[in-house]
Amino acid sequence: MKTIITLTGKHGVTLKAIAHTDLQELSVLANNPAIAANLRDSFPSPYSLKDAEIFFALIQQGKLDHVWGIYADDQIAGVISLTRQTDIYHHAAEISYWLGAPYHGKGITTEAVALVTACAFRELNIYRIYAGIFAYNDASKKVLLKNGYHLEAVKEKAIIKQGRLYDEHLMVKLNC
């Protein structure tokens, strides 16, 4: 398991290692078709406690890069992760995240992205962070824009989700 740095923000937002005791609530929050609609197909839908346990085991086994639970006032609210790339791209990382519906519209994701971005640039020797956003996911684009990310490219018809083709917006932030 990778050591996860606890990151504390303002307004009661903390990013830290996911606790096994939070898996039940995590599975309830994740079991939302609206969340799965904005994530890769590897994210199960429906999302069960068993899925949360498998995810937790992958984290514990070190098979996933940097994964934080997003906590709002000490309650698990979602997940954010940073996946370092390899080979000639080892200076870059992909950021991904989701937040449970009860926590939407409170600035929590914006703060979580700010915390992870700052940590990546400061602690992890990363110079480029990117996110591939489904063209229809305006909320995620707004979160990234608020954090200084910019639209680098539109990858036309790059995504097939629920049998339909969508553009992917590649959002990037550099620290060099």
From TrEMBL:
Keyword Lipid metabolism found: no
InterPro entries (UniProt xref): Acyl_CoA_acyltransferase, GNAT_dom
Phylogenetic classification of the source organism: Bacteria, Pseudomonadati, Bacteroidota, Chitinophagia, Chitinophagales
Keyword field: Transferase
UniProt organism field: Chitinophaga varians
PANTHER family xrefs: ACETYLTRANSFERASE-RELATED, N-ACETYLTRANSFERASE DOMAIN-CONTAINING PROTEIN
A Pfam entry, by short name: Acetyltransf_3
Domain of life: Bacteria
Domain N-acetyltransferase stretches: 21-172
This protein's name: GNAT family N-acetyltransferase
Gene Ontology molecular functions: acyltransferase activity, transferring groups other than amino-acyl groups
